[in-house]
Each structure stands twice: as C-alpha cells, then as structure tokens.
Amino acid sequence: MNFKTGDKVVVIAGKDKGKEGIIKKTLKNTNKVVVEGVNIVKKHVKPNGQTAGSIEEMEAPIHASNVMIVDPKTNKRTRIGHTVDKKGKKIRISKKSNESLD
User: Fold this and answer.
1) What domains does the chain contain, in order, with CATH numbers?
2) pLDDT of 97
3) What is the DSSP letter of 39?
C-alpha cells in the first residue's frame, strides 16, 4: 500500500465521493484506510456499570482503491510513483508535479 498515516487524500468512489481528509490509520492486512470525516457509521454501545448505552458516530475503514492522494503543489488528486533519491533511499513522488510526498 502506498499510503501513510497523515497523508491528505480525496475519496474518488462511494457515498462520500469528493470529500477530502487526512488518513488516521492504515490497515495493511485488508488494504484499507481510515480517513478523518469520511465513511461515518453509527455504532451501538452497550451499557456497562459506569456508562449508559449510547449510539456513537465513528469513521469506518474505506478500501485504499477508493482514495487518491492530493498533490501538495497543485491541490488536485494524483497517483503515487516511487524513485530513489541521492542518498539511495526510496521515496514517494507525485506523478503530476514530480514533488516528493515524504
């Protein structure tokens, strides 16, 4: 997966198409990401000794193929490429502006 926590992404498919947000968590096993303010679901919480039961809203994971990274230079969605810098370290770059994402 090419995404990291803290990347700014835009949703390109699904009920939240067009929304932007920051990645809060990546789930590499299932190839999903949790994006801030996207794919909000209601979760029913059972009561226990200290708190009453309630319905909470939370972000659910969305598949990584349904989001694209936002180019830091142009503020438009872009694909991610990889290249090697002068020190020999592999880095992520934006395909549109050739700008580093790391």
Assistant:
1) 8-70 (2.30.30.30), 75-102 (no CATH)
2) 92
3) S
% of residues, the chain, pLDDT over 90: 92
| pTM exceeding 0.90 | no
Report whether 64 contacts 54 (CB < 8 A).
Answer: no
DSSP string computed for the chain: ----TT-EEEE-SSTTTT-EEEEEEEETTTTEEEETTSSEEEEEE---SSS--EEEEEEPPEEGGGEEEEPTTT-SEE-EEEEE-TTS-EEEEETTT--B--
| Number of C-beta neighbours around residue 7 at 10 A | 19
Helix (H, G, I), strand (E, B) or coil at 56: strand
Mean pLDDT for the chain overall: 95
92: number of Cβ within 10 Å = 17
